[in-house]
Structure formats: C-alpha cells, structure tokens
Write a structure and sequence with these properties.
The protein is of the alpha+beta class. 51% of the residues lie in helices and 12% in strands.
C-alpha cells in the first residue's frame, strides 16, 4: 500500500515498517537484557504514523488491511520480538474499535485522536482469580450520574505503564454473570495503576507485561456499545491469532537466516564437503514454508470473512483461526530449535553473529499466550458439533 505525503521514511507501509524495524534491531539486545520497554522502536513506529494505519481514512488512518499489518509484525519480529508484540497487540485493539465502536460518537472521536496523536493502546483482559479465562470477569462496571467506575485486579497488562489508553474488560454491571462482559476505553489520565507484580521472564522481556490494580473513572459513553462476547468472536480472537502467528513467523525466519549463514560459512571453509547442518536448514526451510502458507491462508480467510457475516461467525471459521494459532506456535518453536542445532554452540552463545538465544526464549512464549491446551479444549468442544471441511481448495 502506497501512501503519498505520509510522515516517516519511505512512502509504503512496509518501507516505514522496515525503517522502524532497523531502529528496533539497534536496541533489541539491550531491551532484552534490561527487560525494558522498546521505547526507541515504538517512537520510530509513532513517527512513521503506523499506529493508526489500520484506521479508516475518514478517521485519519490509511485503511490498511490486516494483511498489511501482519507483514509489519513479521518484519519487526525478525529484529525485536518485544517491539513486534507491542505493535501486534496495539493493532488487535485497533481492529476491535474499528469493527465495533463506530456507532458511538465518543468512540468515533477517539479513533480520530488515535490517528492524530498516534496513541498506543494496551488491553486488560486478564484478571486475577479467573484462571486465565479472558471470557470471564470478576470486576464490574458501576455507572452513576453518567460516569463509569471500575476497579480491576489485572494479572497482566502488557506495556500498561507505557500505554496512552487501556481497553479493559469487566462485567456489564455488578449484578451481571461473569460471562456478561463489556469493554471500556480507559484513558491514561482517567486511571491509576498500582503495580502488583513485576515482569522478570524467560522471554518477551520488553513487553513489560506487569500486573496492576487498575482504578478508573470517566464518562459512561466510553463503554463500547457491543458486548465483549461479540467483539471477541467477530474480531479479537482472529486478529490476535493471525498477528501473533505473523510475528512468530518473523522470529522463526530470522533464526533460519542465521542457520543458513552459518552453513554457508562452514561450506566456504571446506568446499569439498557438504556441511553437516545443510540438511537441517532444508528441514527448517520446509517447516518455515508451511508456517508461512498457513498464516497467509488464515489472513486471506479473515479478509474474505469480513464481507460475509455468516462465515465470520461460523464454527468452521473459529476452528480455522484456533488451528492457525496452535500450529504456528508449535512449528515456530520447532524451527528455532532446528536453527539452534545447526548453529550449535555459536547459536547458544550470546556474543556471536549466530546467536539465537534471545529468539529461542521469545518463541517459547507462543504456546503460552492463550495456552494451547485451553484452545484445544475450546476446539474439541466445537468439533463435537462441526464437521471438518472435506475440500482441499474451496
């Protein structure tokens, strides 16, 4: 997608994403070592006006498709997993707002503000005491005299301390059952965040996904008009799985590039012999192609479903999106592990051109972000009622 007169380096979204990825690459090691927010990368993304790229043109955005955004997620993932994940999670919130909030005047104005000021959005869907089930809330929105009040013990708010706004889930009202949820836009100056846990993790250290007690109050019109159940089913789950898969593909690709470079260097030293790792590089390339094809197919299916409400809400579509997530997360780990075997001790060490330790640790989070066992459990329930597609092409 070419955009004329847009601030930032280059005129296409991908060119600007590539420029931001170069900035991310400069600081990726320090972000990981310090466990700090990738401030430089996000500043570059903001300067290139990529945070509002998926917003419709009439709201100041560029009308980018999810496929456009997925390509940037992959590009960022090749250089800094944390920066790529922050970008992906922000865009998941943007997708939800674009799809479900434009019937409200307040939210239409908020979309324009996001584009104008390049606001960074986080989400608070996790909550202490619900066992990781984001479709259940203990906290509730209380409304009085046109104002909402919310207190939530969020077990995780990724980059919450660095976000300009947070989209938080809660029960619709104190009398509502746990599954009757709404989504509330909480602006930075409308809330207080009391840190309850730190983010000292194996990987994805720069996402700074700390726990917070969130206390917020603001105009009641900031509560999205549609239920969170509808938002989750129609956009949030699919966009999460597809953008995460795109990011994981980028991480995996970067390690295959390193393994390929390692084998080439080995071949130059002994031109009469085929390097031991050459076959494993071929194996990783095969798995990488499978991961790419699966993610691209998921993106195409999502774009098609946007114009077909029956498909978007079908059990078959939900099963397909779940499968993209669990398969991409598992294959990604396998690819990075294969690359580590190729590079050997040079990949294991942190001070060589072939270092893969950071990417290895980051990709391990893929199977835990909405735990694969939980997703398999949901899919197994749907498969009791849904017949698998028997066609290869259509």
């Amino acid at each position: 997608m070419t955009v004329h007169g847009t601030a930032g380096i280059g005129t296409t979204l991908l060119e600007r994403g590539t420029a931001a990825a170069a900035v991310a690459a400069e600081h990726a090691v320090d972000v990981d070592r310090q466990g700090r927010f990738p401030a430089e990368a996000i500043a570059a993304i903001k300067a290139s006006r990529l945070l509002g790229a998926m917003l419709p043109v009439e709201y100041g955005g560029e009308g980018a498709t999810l496929t456009d955004i997925a390509e940037i997620c992959s590009t960022l993932g090749q250089h800094c997993s944390s920066a790529g994940m922050v970008f992906a999670m922000h865009q998941i919130q943007i997708s939800s707002l674009v799809s479900h909030a434009r019937t409200s005047e307040w939210h239409r104005g908020f979309l324009r503000t996001i584009a104008e000021q390049q606001l960074l959005l986080a989400s608070a869907t996790s909550e202490a005491g619900v066992g990781g089930d984001v479709r259940t809330s203990l906290c509730a929105v209380e409304t009085e005299k046109g104002l909402y009040h919310l207190e939530k013990n969020a077990s995780v708010i990724s980059y919450g301390a660095n976000a300009d706004a947070i989209l938080a889930t809660a029960r619709r009202e104190p009398e509502s059952p746990p599954s009757d949820q709404v989504l509330v836009v909480v602006l930075k100056d409308q809330c207080t965040l009391e840190r309850t846990s730190v983010w000292d993790t194996l990987g994805m250290r720069g996402t700074c996904s700390e726990g917070f007690k969130l206390k917020a109050s603001g105009p009641a019109e900031q509560v999205l008009p549609r239920s969170f159940a509808e938002i989750s089913a129609r956009s949030m789950l699919a966009t999460s799985h597809l953008l995460w898969a795109s990011l994981w593909y980028g991480i995996a690709l970067s390690t295959v590039h390193k393994a390929q470079a390692f084998v080439r260097a080995d071949a130059r030293k002994r031109p009469s012999e085929t390097p031991v790792g050459a076959i494993r590089v071929a194996e990783a390339a095969s798995e990488l192609q499978m991961m790419k094809s699966m993610t691209r197919d998921g993106l195409k299916r999502f774009e098609h479903a946007q114009a077909d409400n029956e498909e978007l809400t079908s059990m078959g579509f939900a099963v397909a999106m779940n499968n993209v997530k669990v398969a991409a997360s598992r294959i990604g780990v396998e690819i990075v592990n294969t690359a580590m075997l190729v590079c050997g001790i040079a990949g294991f060490k942190n001070d060589t051109p072939y270092s893969i330790g950071r990417q290895y640790r980051d990709i391990l989070s893929a199977q835990l972000m909405i735990n694969n066992d939980r997703i398999f459990g949901n899919t197994s329930t749907m498969l009791l009622m849904h017949r698998l597609d028997a066609h290869l092409v259509n």
